[in-house]
Amino acid sequence: MHSAISSIGKNLILLGLVALSAINFFYGWLSWQDLLIVQSLTGLAYIFLSCYEFLNAQYRAQLPVKRYSYFTNKYVMFKALKMGVFVSFAALLYLAGNNIKYLYPVCILIAITEGLVMYMKYKRGIYFVSISIYANYLMFSDDKLVKLFASQIELVEFRHDIFYFVKKDKKSLQIKMVHIQDRENFLQSINEWLVRNKVRIGNESATSLKQAVETVS
Known about the structure:
The chain is α+β, with helices and mostly antiparallel strands. Helix content is 58%, strand content 16%. The mean pLDDT is 83.
């Protein structure tokens, strides 16, 4: 409930900030300095609600106790690109030289928030893979929680330190061991989970996984 309220609140703040900046562009009700003050104050509220959205107790209660940090370069690059786009757009607005530059703080605000939330999630281990031996699913988390049930998996391959989970709908998920911090426990857990849930694994992959488990044991 709290997470939903904070999500709605931050989106309303952002919409209100964009609307105010756009209206002021046409009517000039506020001076540049006054508008910047309003944008800064509402921006702080937006950042606060964005951080609170995942820090609240209800969200933390949904997180599994046993989880392996999984923070990929691909995800970092995606977020960096997203922030770069907003910063570039802000620069273009500011250099426009007319009242449209009043919109540039909104883009800066979004870029800062994206970076701050990503950092806080990384520090608190919100990006993870969760394996419970007694559950029939794996849980993945980056910006959202995704469950992969054993019944959805057609085949698992383990090659070059990468797990490939091929689903029955022909889509696939990957886990690259280079991004797993607790390699020893992860390999043992995933091996036990595959065996317990009778998930099909390729012959060569089964041998490779067995050797990898024995190596870290």
